[in-house]
Amino acid sequence: MQTQSKVTLDSTVIPFKNKLNSPFKKKGITVLQINLGKRCNLACTHCHVEAGPKRTEELSPEICEQLISLIHRFPEIKIVDLTGGAPEMNYGFKPLVEAARATGKQVIVRSNLTIYFEDGFSDLPEYFAKHQVRVVASLPCYLADNVDKMRGAGVFDSSVKALQWLNQLGYGKEPNLTLDLVFNPQLPTGEKFSLAPEQTSLERDYKMFLQEHFNIVFNNLFTITNLPVGRTKMHLERRKLYTSYLQFLESHFNPSTVEYLMCRDELSIDYLGNVYDCDFNQMMNLPAKNRNGETLTVSKLLEAGSLDLINEIQTAAYCYGCTAGCGSSCGGALLES
Ligand code: SF4
Ligand code: SF4
């Protein structure tokens, strides 16, 4: 039996697949994004992973070893992107960083910054600098109130201290120590929805404000649209805004973004070694599939000796979040406005 919300959604939002003119295929895989687990020292209101301090799911030694083999075996992987939860808190973080760097790949850590002030994690900034890890840090606003509302009391102050610490080590200043910030819009509380502001001008505002008030410098700002997944979806459902938000995103569908979507060239891996087209599909339990409709795992990729086993990228209505306006990805907007 269909649920009420499914009937409403189906009748009001065109399936994403129907918007595409051709089969939605992968290009060659160059990015391996690994979600190490759901443990995090924060529990942000917009978190699509539903991460938090009480979550215990994380990588096992066996899956970590398989991932290290994958990193060694496939030179076409140019970037290893580590996320979570707080990736630094979950099993396998340092072994994966070191395996990827030893094979000359770029390593990205998606860091919440506040983790460096938790017991046992104060070595992280120096560790990142030593291994030239690219730090992509969440700072959903440059104003303290907005950040604390989304992420918890005191998070803005800790983030400022962490950014100053990274700057002292050369981050944002030296060519091999890249520091990027991530902006997420506030979650909507009524029908007045908006897309993320234009990335270049917001980056300019962030740079001016952080330099002037805190003497902080950084490289790039990434604006990321809130996809209706995880806690964002729950937030919207509680306020009966879920369908209207999807309709809003659909009404801003921009076909020019499709070429550049992050799912075109990445594999997303969960802590159990299952393969997805992106982290959002991972959170919504929509696994990647091969030509026979079978799901994939890291061990199947190793067995086949190939990363190119996926037939078509799996999509859902939330894909409208990646394709609205200038587009959105873990690397920010997809097009210049
Ligand atoms: S958004 Fe990031 S920092 Fe916040 S709870 Fe989720 S994983 Fe942790
Ligand atoms: S959510 Fe975005 S990245 Fe994931 S499959 Fe859909 S369009 Fe691609």
What descriptive keywords fit this protein?
337 residues; alpha/beta; TIM Barrel; globular
Describe the model.
The protein is of the alpha/beta class. It has a single domain, classed as TIM Barrel, CATH 3.20.20. It contains 12 helices and 8 strands. The protein is globular. The chain starts with a helix and ends in a 14-residue tail after the last helix. One iron/sulfur cluster binds next to helix 10.
- Named CATH architecture: Alpha-Beta Barrel
Widest sheet: strand ordering: 6-5-4-3-2-1-7-8
Low-confidence stretches: 1-8
- Termini separation comes to 44 Å
Mean pLDDT: 93
Proportion of helical residues = 25-40%
Rg: 19 Å
Give the helices and strands as they follow along the chain.
HEHEHEHEHHEHEHHEEHHH
Share of residues in strands = 5-15%
- The CATH topology turns out to be TIM Barrel
- CATH top-level class: Alpha Beta
